[in-house]
Amino acid sequence: MLSKKQAQVFFLGGTAVTFLIFIMLTIYSLSSAQDQSNQENLTAEAIRGKEIWEKNNCMGCHTIMGEGAYYAPELTNVLERRGDAYVKAVLMSKIPWQPQGRKMVAYGMTEAEANDVVAFFEWVTEINLNGFEKVNRTISPLAKDRMID
Amino acid sequence: MKYKSQKVAYWFFALSMLLLVLQLTYGFIMGFARLGYDGLHEWIPFNTAHTVHLNLLVVWLLSGFMGAAYYIIPEESETELWSVKLAYLQLITLAIVGVTAVVGFHFNYWEGRKFLEIPRILDWPVALNVILFLVILLMTIIKGKKTSTTSLVLFGGLVAAALLYLPGMITFDSQVLDSFFRWWVVHLWVEGVWELIMGGIMAFLLIKLTGVDREVIEKWLYVVVGLTFLSGILGTGHHYYYIGVNNIWLIVGGIFSALEPLAFLAMALWAVNMYRKGEKKHPNKTAILWTLGSAIVAFLGAGVLGLAHTLPQTNIYTHGTLVTAMHGHLAFWGAYAMIVLAMITYVLPNVTGRKLFDTSRARSAFWLSNIGMFTMISGFGAAGIAQVYMERKLGIEFMEVQNEIKVHFWVLITGATILSTGITLFIIDFIKYGTPSDEALEIQE
Questions:
Q1: SS (HEC) of A21-41
Q2: Is 1.10.10.10 the CATH number for B4-438?
Q3: What would the pLDDT profile of B221-267 be if each residue is shown by its tens digit?
Q4: Which of A97, B144, B230, B428 could crosslink B79 through cysteines, CB 3.0-4.6 Å?
Q5: Given this model, what pLDDT does residue B393 score?
Q6: What pLDDT score does B390 carry?
Q7: Smallest CA–CA separation between A86 and chain B, in Å?
């Protein structure tokens, strides 16, 4: 029968080993040889765009790379879906953008700010997301059947 | 109550209750906004309501954990709290920082990183507050007559939670790195060290409520928290599947996330078995109900519903959808909200001297809030599954899908109303108990 001491060793030993493996995997996956985050193309504009993204808490409604609040569309591929001009028009609008009744905050950004956010989206578009970036683009066979009907 | 200083816990619980009411209010604002009733948009847009809702959750739970620790550590260490005045100072500063952050969110004073929206400048007062809290506990443990496993696990969890706040304070230019280290805070809190805190509180409650020998309960506490870390640390990988890092996390995260329910299953079995073995059951049956309920609902919400979308093959479709909200709500409710409510239910009679437990109102609070939460997650679940199918499989545009699944948010609102009724009954009981009294010292627990 397991003693309290053995249970303690299981807890401390298991935690130490898994934490060590976690740190090693972190170092490995963030090493430059394994980098797939499009780090080399991270421009000053894209960094400013990220700051604007955070300052306005866009993640409080939208998702990017699948992370956010699920209230407004995923923006990882937004430039492919909508194009630069549409995205800039939304960001620069002085009245709340209201697609199908759901309101967005009217940010009324300057053109320079909107360009920075677009640069941020351009950078995100090129990140290798292990296949997630392709999910929304794939129409299933079932959908094709529906479209023929 | 054995020590006068344990009364401090009551005021942390009172703050928790206040913040919980506010959290529910902002939840309703979001629910109605999803149905198209967003009349408050100009003052409280969705991103503000969402941020306030999440952060109030974190702060009321932390306040609950702190209250629990201020009650448990003196009793386990067999001594008065090291400094009651500093504990009250810590409570006041916690409330000030919390209120400042919540008010600030309404004026775009935030970071825009989910769960870590508190601006970095406010991170420092938070850090100081937590350090003060830990120093008070540490000094109490040092001056105490004994050091129990329960208090060490609880204290260890609180120290680790404080340390893990640090990666969230680093600034990154890359969204990928930002996200990567944000999960060090969020995941390693809720699927790691917070479970130590939960385990510590649960061990204390099981010792007090079942009468089972401390050595037996604490032995299994080690096993439960051991399984938690064994699966949970590398289980962080399930957040790294699709955020722009190496695909090794698909394998590591997949395997260890699949093991995570075992820790919650162990916790549920531990709690239920200790209850069955117990021969000197405490008369506060409502506290037992909340304690066992917490272990079982945590297994369902964090374990089973987590597993439902944690494998990479499933997660590629469910990532970033309402399926996550379904899992998140029941997991937080079972694992953390219910254990705090269990602790409050156990502590209130002891610090006030009024044995108002086991009333029909107290039982109704438990059942209504749980029925409400399960109704809510049914709404989220149905909406999430429909969203995955229409948006991710059929490729229908986001807002078209949102309009199609709107009906499920009526279910959500209905569930939230039932939950709020249960919480209202809980708070009525909280108020009826009145404030703590030194006379409670003489009353047998």
A1: HHHHHHHHHHCHHHCCCCHHH
A2: no
A3: 999 999 999 999 999 999 999 999 999 999 999 999 999 999 999 99
A4: B144
A5: 85
A6: 93
A7: 16
Q: For chain B, which residues make up each domain, given as ranges?
A: 4-438
Residues 6+ apart with CB under 8 A from B155: B69, B73, B134, B137, B138, B141, B200
Q: Which residue of B lies nearest to A47 if distances are taken between CA atoms?
A: B173
Closest residue, chain B, to A5 (C-alpha): B219
User: Residues 6 or more apart from B369 whose CB is under 8 A from it?
Assistant: B418, B419, B421, B422, B423, B426
Phi, psi of B335 (to 5 degrees): -75, -40
B213 has a pLDDT exceeding 70 = yes
Q: Which residues of B77-88 are buried (b: 16+ CB within 10 A; e: fewer)?
A: bebbbbbbebbe
Per-residue pLDDT at A147: 47
Indicate the fold that domain A42-137 takes in CATH: Cytochrome Bc1 Complex; Chain D, domain 2 (1.10.760)
Interface test with B, best of A17, A30, A45, A57 (most B CBs within 10 A): A57
The answer, yes or no, to whether ipTM is higher than 0.95 is no
Tokens of B288: 């037992």
The token duo for B436 is: 């703590």
B260 backbone dihedrals φ, ψ, rounded to 5°: -55, -40
Rounded CA-CA distance B76/B141 in Å is 9
Q: Do B222 and A65 touch (CB under 8 A)?
A: no
In this complex, do A29 and B222 lie within 8 Å of one another by their Cβ atoms?
Answer: no
